[in-house]
């Protein structure tokens, strides 16, 4: 695959380099690195020396020329933010035009972000602020680290800090709508999907009930805007939502309604206000049962295992406040997710990204196909494919949270969106195991033990605002 390292050149007057940029060769040039200007007179200083971190002269790799990786040694009270790379063993110049160190109070700790390239002797990774969230001040600088293997690590590199963090660089509500209309995802459901998304209002208006512990026989219909839901508190098990009692009405609600689907937007400042996250929340009234791939059995239905009432999924659009460009997108997948560079996304109808919802489980993916949640080619199936069941999230959406946005009552309902149902999971699994040849039963049980409990239990989820990512980074 290989990599290419880029040196910032043709900087505007009075701006200085903080580090080089690196990316793998299997993608088009897509990236950036920040430069800095010293407005106070003592924010930047030239290095006092360099450490050679490693070089590639003796590595058994194809290369256009050897690369020498240098880490600046900074004056007391200053930190290095990036590396300098040369094609000769001569140390770089100590002039500020080569690279600058940043005053310590204008920096924060950084950590590795994404893997860029590596050999059995070294690893290159992009850097990000170690502390991330809606109130964190660390700024993603665009530089990278170089870690030699089997030797002591070099001194740490730092990221920039926004010491005057406010929301002035965030887009206005109108600008947010324009950005979302530009990048809003097309979401494709699997052709065999039985359980469609809907709006929260549709779910409430079609008979959703609020249950209270100790008074289960007297459920209360939920108001269309959720105004009679308990507000705040915690997920204490005292309240939960469920379907209408009537069997036909229950089946109707369970299936959702694609024509009445709406997505809900949470606007978040990230990286010290230099980026805006538009978090796109999608509600499904029901999460269907799981299927398993096990050895030669391509698709094994697991009965009611994996089912639960209420299902919240999300996609995050990370947009630069410097230029309004989409930088990355995050796709939620069960208890985790995947962050994808914009250059690696699929687009449709201009700049609108494409997302695929897995069959029954509704995990979000950037590509169609099969993704297994397991090991050695076995595990829970996530099947994604294009179909005539799809929607453009930009057609029906609502801003529900963010700076200056009035939140709807249902967003501050912190209890479960579905009941906890205790299935005899072991009995179900034993029944499946007994249908297998004796030699396969032990392997089957071993595989099941590796599956997360949230996949195996029927337990309604909490709403978006209770998720860890609400104020943190995805």
TrEMBL record:
Entry superkingdom: Eukaryota
Q: Spell out the InterPro entries in the cross-references.
A: Vps62
Q: What is this protein called?
A: Vacuolar protein sorting-associated protein 62
């Amino acid at each position: 695959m290989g990599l290419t390292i880029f040196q910032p050149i043709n900087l505007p007057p009075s701006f200085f380099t903080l580090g080089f940029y690196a990316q793998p060769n299997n993608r088009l040039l897509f990236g950036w690195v920040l430069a800095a200007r010293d407005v106070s007179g003592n924010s930047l200083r030239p290095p006092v020396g360099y450490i050679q971190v490693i070089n590639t002269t003796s590595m058994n790799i194809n290369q256009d020329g050897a690369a020498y990786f240098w880490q600046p040694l900074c004056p007391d009270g200053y930190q290095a933010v990036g590396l300098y790379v040369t094609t000769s063993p001569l140390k770089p110049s100590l002039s500020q035009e080569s690279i600058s160190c940043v005053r310590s109070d204008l920096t924060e700790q950084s950590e590795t972000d994404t893997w860029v390239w590596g050999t059995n002797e070294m690893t290159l990774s992009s850097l990000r602020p170690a502390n991330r969230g809606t109130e964190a001040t660390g700024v993603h600088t665009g530089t990278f680290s170089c870690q030699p293997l089997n030797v002591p690590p070099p001194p740490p590199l730092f990221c920039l800090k926004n010491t005057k963090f406010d929301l002035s660089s965030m887009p206005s509500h109108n600008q947010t709508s324009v950005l979302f209309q530009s990048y809003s995802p097309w979401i494709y459901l699997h052709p065999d999907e039985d359980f469609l998304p809907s709006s929260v209002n549709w779910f409430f208006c079609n008979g959703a009930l609020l249950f209270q512990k100790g008074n289960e026989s007297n459920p209360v219909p939920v108001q269309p805007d959720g105004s009679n839901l308990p507000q705040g508190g915690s997920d204490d098990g005292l309240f939960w939502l469920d379907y209408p009692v009537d069997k036909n009405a229950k089946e109707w609600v369970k299936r959702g309604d694609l024509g009445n689907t709406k997505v809900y937007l949470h606007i978040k400042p990230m990286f010290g206000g230099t980026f805006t996250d538009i978090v796109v929340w999608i509600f499904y009234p029901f999460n269907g049962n799981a299927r398993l791939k096990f050895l030669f059995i391509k698709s094994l239905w697991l009965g009611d295992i994996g089912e639960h009432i209420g299902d919240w999924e999300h996609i995050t659009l990370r947009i630069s406040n410097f230029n309004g460009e989409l930088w990355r997108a995050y796709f939620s997948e069960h208890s985790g997710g995947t962050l994808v560079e914009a250059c690696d996304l699929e687009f449709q109808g201009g700049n609108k990204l494409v997302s695929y919802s897995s069959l029954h489980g509704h995990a979000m993916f950037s590509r169609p196909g099969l993704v297994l949640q397991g090991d050695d080619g076995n595990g829970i199936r996530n099947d994604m494919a294009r179909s005539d069941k799809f929607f453009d999230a930009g057609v029906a959406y609502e801003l529900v949270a963010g700076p200056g946005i009035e939140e709807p009552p249902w967003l501050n309902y912190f209890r479960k969106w579905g009941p906890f149902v205790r299935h005899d999971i072991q009995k179900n699994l034993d029944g499946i195991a007994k249908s297998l040849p004796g030699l396969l039963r032990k392997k089957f049980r071993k595989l099941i033990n590796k599956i997360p409990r949230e996949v195996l239990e029927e337990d309604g989820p909490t709403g978006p605002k209770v998720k860890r990512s609400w104020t943190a980074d995805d």
